[in-house]
Every structure is written in C-alpha cells, then in structure tokens.
C-alpha cells in the first residue's frame, strides 16, 4: 500500500520535500468494515490550505497524516451489509492505494455517472461549487455580463457554460492562448483573455462594454484588480477561491486599497459573498446531480480532465495545479479500473 503523507508544512509554494511516499502493508477489514482500492484521486486547490496550520474552515492536516483528497474506489472486500466487492464508491480516502473504512462518508457511485472519475469533477465537488455559487449567489439573468477566471478548470469552465445557458455574455480569463482558444471554441465563451498579457485590464475593459454584472471569483490578485473598476451597480461576486494568493507568505506590497474597495461596494451596492460548498449547500446536492447529469448527457455542458498516472506523480501535479500547469480537472489514476 503506497501512501503519501505530509512531511513538512510549506512556506510559500509547496515543494516535493513537503511530501513523503511510504509503503505499508495492505490493511485488513474487521467486522462491519470494508477494504477499498482507490482508482481515481482528485487533486484540488483547497489541499494547500490544509497543509498550513493557519486557522480555516476545517482543521489542518497534521505532519505525517495522509494527504487529504476525494477518491473514487472499488470495494475489494466487504464485511459491511450495504456494500459488495466490486462496487464503485466515492469518498475521501486521500493520497493512498488502499483504505479500510466503516462506511461512514462513503457513498455508492450513482449509476448514471458516465465515467467513474466524473464524480470527482463535473458531477462532484467542483461542478457543484460552480452550480451553487453561480446560481445562488451570482443570480445570473439573460443579457448580463459574467467574468470568470481559471476559465478552463472544473469550476470556472462550468460556471461559464451554465451562465451561457442562462443567457449571459461570458468573458473567461485563463493562462495562455491554448486555454483561451478552448474556452471559446469548445466551452462556448464569448471571449477569453490571457492573464499573462500585460494589458489584461485594458483588454477586459474592451471586452465588457456594458460593465460586469457578475464576477465569479476564483483567483483574486491582478484579475480582481482588473475587474473592480468595471463592476456595475448591483453586481454580485460569489467569492469561491483566491488561488493566486494560496502560496503567499505576506500581504501584497503597495498602497492599502481597502477603503477604495469598501467605497465601491457601498456606492455600487455590490453583493460579495463567500461560501464553502458542502458546509453551505450539502442539502442541494441531489438537485445538482439531477440537473448537471442531464446537461452533461445532453452535451450542453462540456468537461475536460487532466489525467496523470500513478500516485508517485501526485506531488508534482499538485504543485503544478497552483501554477496553472493543469489543463482541465486534475485527477490521478492509481491503478486499473
Ligand atoms: P482549476 O483546475 O481551475 O485549477 C486552478 C487554476 O487556477 C489553474 O489551472 C490556473 O488556471 C489558475 N491559477 C493558478 N494560479 C493562478 C494565479 N496566480 N493567477 C491566476 N490564475 C491562477 O481549479 P478548480 O476549478 O478546482 O478551482 C477553482 C477555484 O475554486 C479555486 O480558487 C478553488 O480554491 C476554488 N474552490 C472553492 C470551493 C468552495 O467551496 N469555495 C470548492 C472548490 C473549489 P490558468 O492557467 O487558467 O490561470
């Protein structure tokens, strides 16, 4: 049983030395327990927060803990009445090949999911995040302009496509020409801007002649700087993530612009609201799965995975996720289906 544990807490960007690969015997399930073999492992930005011991919405990992992560697994052996060998299940087994569990928090994979790994992306946590943040907080209306960055990832890509279904004009922001082309040609965004271009703010102003009604916040930093002056009265900002700051060790340099931000929020009556998907919206998951399952089956929502083989490659892939090296939902495949 291979497993990857937290070797040290990163200062700034994580490095390979913050992770340690260990070998252990495969655990044996006791009475009422089941043994799972993990086949797909989700790598997600929130894991960076759990590697730190700064206060957050959930407790940090401890040193030597297995790194946390969502998983799709196959039941190898079951002493549990509700599961049988061969079942596909979704859970939080973390960065390891096998786990023994009493079944708490483990759910059977919905038989309508087109591919098991989709339960980690479009039909799982990131898709759900896009759906609730946009529809509940963003409140999109036909004819409005929406801006979203990390535009080809599982959250941003889905936000933009749902907004198109709701009749919005959608401006994506992504890292590089290839991602931008994909956002327009495959995902159907109206425009996609490359945030590595120096004149991002001017390009965004040109792309949003009617201003911005919804800014779905995934990255923060210079993207938010470019968005701020373009916000319309009564704009909504679902604050989903600020990935550009996850590796930061201090507040950014420069003048304190907090009062500028507050005055814009006040004068334009902007609604800016953070949310943590399962803490706030768990009771909506059934509704989400039904609607998103239908959109995916009908081809109305497209989804791209970035599949990396083998657990050993998870640290490098995760470090890359925080730098935009992934193109689509980052998933590790640990073994054969
Ligand atoms: P993605 O697969 O989109 O990966 C992250 C992307 O962020 C990268 O590919 C990169 O895209 C972009 N990025 C990374 N660093 C920077 C930077 N410095 N500046 C600008 N862009 C950067 O991730 P997800 O779709 O899984 O997550 C998107 C956001 O949603 C994250 O902020 C995440 O924390 C948040 N989230 C929040 C949840 C909640 O409950 N609130 C739940 C799930 C996710 P590019 O190359 O295009 O710049």
CATH homologous superfamily title of the largest domain: NAD(P)-binding Rossmann-like Domain
Which ligands appear in the coordinates? NADPH dihydro-nicotinamide-adenine-dinucleotide phosphate
Structural class designation: alpha/beta
Tell how many strands the DSSP assignment holds.
15
Shape: globular
- Poorly predicted runs are none
CATH architecture of the largest domain, by name, is: 3-Layer(aba) Sandwich
Q: State the separation between the terminal residues, measured CA to CA.
A: 17 Å
Estimate percent helicity: 25-40%
- Beta-strand residue fraction: 15-25%
Q: Which CATH class of the largest domain is shown? A: Alpha Beta
Order of helices and strands: EEEHEEEEHEHEHEHEHEHEHHEHE
Main beta sheet, described?
Answer: 7 strands, mixed
Number of domains: 2
Overall average pLDDT: 97
Please give the count of helices.
10
Protein architecture, described:
With 337 residues, the chain is an alpha/beta fold. It folds into two domains: 2-121 and 303-333, Alpha-Beta Complex (Quinone Oxidoreductase, Chain A, domain 1), CATH 3.90.180.10; 125-278, Rossmann fold. It is built from ten helices and 15 strands. The strands form three sheets. Strands 3, 4, 5, 6, 7, 14 and 15 form a seven-stranded mixed beta sheet that branches. Helix 3 links the parallel strand 8 and strand 9 (169-174). The radius of gyration is 21 Å and the shape is globular. NADPH dihydro-nicotinamide-adenine-dinucleotide phosphate (NDP) is lined by residues 44-46, 126, 129, 149-150, 152-156, 174-175, 179, 195, 218-219, 221, 240-241, 243-244, 275-277, 321-324, 326, 329-330. NADPH dihydro-nicotinamide-adenine-dinucleotide phosphate binds at residues 44-46, 126, 129, 149-150, 152-156, 174-175, 179, 195, 218-219, 221, 240-241, 243-244, 275-277, 321-324, 326, 329-330.
